Amino acid sequence: MDQRNFMYMFYGFSITWAIIAFYVMILAGREKGIQKQLESLKRILEDKK
User: Fold this and answer.
1) What is the mean pLDDT of residues 8-33?
2) What residues does each domain of the chain span?
């Protein structure tokens, strides 16, 4: 196999993993926001009791 093919494959895998890592970070940030909203709602419900 040609050396260039390995470089293209390496670049492709690197870009793919970078996109996956970025997506996971976005999901983690959203999960944190949802968790904060849930805690806020729990406090509101406890205050009304």
Assistant:
1) 97
2) 21-49
